[in-house]
């Protein structure tokens, strides 16, 4: 028999203080009955002797201290999981929102989960094709990797997220591939864009959507990525699927964390974010990976918008420490009409060398990747000199590199949001662009590969 407490003494923002409690556990789910008979939910986030701090899921408006009763349910927040979740949409608390029938669960899982034990991890080494040349060709994504996308306010990260969700595939194993998409704190218009796009392109048939809107309570924003990862863990490690988790926008998650921290009157850290922001983000990111002896994997693409395009802001800064690289969207390229506006030079996938080459992509991938990066960097420098000194001050090689950089942006980067390039098409396009440069300058490619693929 569950005890009912009528000892609510304080409500501040999304937090409620209940006194005189017994046997309450951290992260325990709470049922709150208002004086009107309405039920709301919460979870225990702090315990001090006989006092429990409860975080409310649906907000605190309309709560009367004297007329409110509280029951502690003796279990954590859980997600009912089933393979039937594929093709369905849920809110940030795991409730069905697509007007379809309720899910008949095969199991119920604690959404808090745990990071994968490093001893149990297997090294990521298999290629995932996103269909985007700037990622597949130069910043390759591999199964089990965490590769975030750093964007800015107003940049098209939502279109990039939808494109990856539509196009991503594991070569030779597409049947066992699923996308878990978590939209965190987005507007209704953005949510409708994702729903319509997924349905129109058929991507919904292999996707699980968790959508949290901007006007939903902050606590639901905190649970959305955990719900998505709990679903991904079930599909990957119980159903042996290759799962890609896309989470947008992690900045909204961090803002919700700051809001709740301020309500708890915690000492703020850098820019007002709680001192445990790094730890909290790591508990989300480190749930991706590949387990030894298990065929299923979880690959993560968290997307975050950098306030004021500041890459040193705490959210991208700490994310960069935890994840294996970053894809950065460029405002300059976006203003030029290039889509997707991926900035090549500061972007990096630290595991790309493990997922490319003979038997994975193609034998010429590593050499062409290095040559294209070097040529583009030289071309950007040459263009700057060209603006200052004019063409006459540049050598023939510098002029060729400047021409390469222009063509590279127009043809290679600027592929649009609905062009799905195979890795073969991406590599062949790279060779086509490298013809602009004199052969004597192709110093990073083996001569045998030049003879085989360029001629």
UniProtKB/TrEMBL annotation:
Pfam families: ATP-synt_ab (PF00006), ATP-synt_ab_N (PF02874), ATP-synt_VA_C (PF22919). InterPro entries: ATP-synt_VA_C (IPR055190), ATPase_F1/V1/A1_a/bsu_N (IPR004100), ATPase_F1/V1/A1_a/bsu_N_sf (IPR036121), ATPase_F1/V1/A1_a/bsu_nucl-bd (IPR000194), P-loop_NTPase (IPR027417), V-ATPase_su_B/beta (IPR022879). Residues 131-349 form the ATPase F1/V1/A1 complex alpha/beta subunit nucleotide-binding domain. One of its GO terms (cellular component) is proton-transporting ATP synthase complex. Residues 354-453 form the ATP synthase A/B type C-terminal domain. Keywords: ATP synthesis, Hydrogen ion transport, Hydrolase, Ion transport, Transport. GO terms for molecular function: ATP binding; hydrolase activity; proton-transporting ATP synthase activity, rotational mechanism. Residues 8-74 form the ATPase F1/V1/A1 complex alpha/beta subunit N-terminal domain. The keyword Ion transport applies. GO terms for biological process: proton motive force-driven plasma membrane ATP synthesis. Belongs to the ATPase alpha/beta chains family. Produces ATP from ADP in the presence of a proton gradient across the membrane. The V-type beta chain is a regulatory subunit. This is V-type ATP synthase beta chain. The lineage of its organism: Bacteria, Bacillati, Bacillota, Tissierellia, Tissierellales. The gene is atpB.
């Amino acid at each position: 028999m569950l005890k009912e407490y009528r000892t609510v003494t304080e409500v501040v923002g999304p937090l409620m203080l209940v006194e005189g409690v017994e046997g309450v556990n951290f992260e325990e789910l709470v049922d709150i009955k208002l004086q009107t008979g309405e039920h709301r939910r919460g979870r225990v986030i702090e315990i001090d002797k006989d006092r429990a701090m409860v975080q409310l899921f649906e907000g605190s408006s309309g709560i009367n201290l004297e007329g409110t009763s509280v029951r502690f349910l003796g279990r954590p927040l859980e997600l009912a999981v089933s393979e039937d979740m594929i093709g369905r949409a849920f809110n940030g608390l795991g409730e069905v929102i697509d007007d379809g029938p309720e899910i008949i669960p095969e199991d119920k899982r604690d959404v808090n989960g745990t990071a994968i034990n490093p001893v149990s991890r297997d090294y990521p080494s298999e290629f995932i094709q996103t269909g985007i040349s700037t990622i597949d060709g130069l910043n390759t994504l591999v199964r089990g990797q965490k590769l975030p996308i750093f964007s800015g306010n107003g940049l098209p990260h939502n279109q990039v997220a939808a494109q990856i969700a539509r196009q991503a595939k594991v070569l030779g194993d597409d049947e066992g591939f699923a996308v878990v998409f978590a939209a965190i704190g987005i507007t209704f218009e953005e949510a409708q864009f994702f729903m319509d796009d997924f349905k129109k392109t058929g991507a919904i048939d292999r996707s699980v959507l968790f959508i949290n809107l901007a006007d939903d309570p902050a606590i639901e924003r905190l649970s959305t990525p955990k719900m998505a990862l709990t679903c991904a863990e079930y599909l990957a490690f119980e159903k042996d699927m290759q799962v890609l988790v896309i989470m947008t926008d992690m900045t909204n998650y961090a803002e919700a964390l700051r809001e709740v921290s301020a309500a708890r009157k915690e000492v703020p850290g850098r820019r007002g974010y709680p001192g445990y922001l790094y730890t909290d983000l790591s508990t989300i990111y480190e749930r991706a990976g590949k387990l030894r002896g298990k065929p299923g994997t979880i690959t993560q693409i968290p997307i975050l918008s950098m306030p004021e395009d500041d890459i040193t802001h705490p959210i991208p800064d700490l994310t960069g420490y935890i994840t294996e690289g970053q894809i950065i969207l460029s405002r300059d390229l976006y203003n030029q009409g290039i889509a997707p506006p991926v900035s090549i030079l500061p972007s990096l996938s630290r595991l790309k060398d493990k997922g490319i080459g003979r038997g994975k992509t193609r034998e010429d991938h590593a050499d062409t990747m290095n040559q294209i990066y070097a040529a583009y960097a030289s071309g950007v420098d040459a263009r700057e000199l060209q603006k200052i000194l004019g063409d006459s001050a540049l050598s023939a090689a510098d002029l060729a590199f400047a021409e390469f950089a222009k063509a590279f942006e127009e043809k290679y980067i600027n592929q649009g949001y609905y062009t799905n390039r195979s890795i073969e098409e991406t590599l062949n396009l790279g060779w086509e662009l490298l013809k602009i440069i004199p052969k004597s300058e192709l110093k990073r490619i083996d001569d045998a590969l030049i003879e085989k693929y360029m001629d």
